[in-house]
Give the backbone structure.
Amino acid sequence: KQEVTQIPAALSVPEGENLVLNCSFTDSAIYNLQWFRQDPGKGLTSLLLIQSSQREQTSGRLNASLDKSSGRSTLYIAASQPGDSATYLCAVLDSWGKLQFGAGTQVVVTP
Amino acid sequence: DTGVSQDPRHKITKRGQNVTFRCDPISEHNRLYWYRQTLGQGPEFLTYFQNEAQLEKSRLLSDRFSAERPKGSFSTLEIQRTEQGDSAMYLCASSPTDSNQPQHFGDGTRLSIL
């Protein structure tokens, strides 16, 4: 049974610092891995999708890496801003098209 | 592209009542998913459709839950005889058939059982 874990559960950093969010999964037979952002009371916004054959994806200040063999992914957010405050969720997609989510990392960026 | 739309945004009901939620996916997306999210947790998969066919259901989806997508467009999720434990955010997502395209989520329906 796939288990997805995110560490830390919460993180507070001053504006301008880089953010490092970790995600681990127990079954390496994944189709892809996705990172999402969730604001309070809202749905999820897709940030990055890494296919199982890829090692990383980049979009603006965001960079995500994937090491399928060790069951790990890391999301880096450069030069954090107060607007980056949100909960960040990682999820792995299995061959049946189901996403399995971690519990998320709640990020607060202080001005 | 108007995004995934869910209705209602909030639903408060008494234990034992039936509730129905609606999801309108992005129009060109063949796949539609339902998830449930409780406070402090990530979403949990409930079921998904490809066009009108329901392809998979989670064991979380008890007999009191039923989902339909009659014409392969919008979907409904019905909960019969609601219980306190059904209180959660119910999220809908849609995607193209290509699994390497991300799922797009609606803002969810928050269900509160009194």
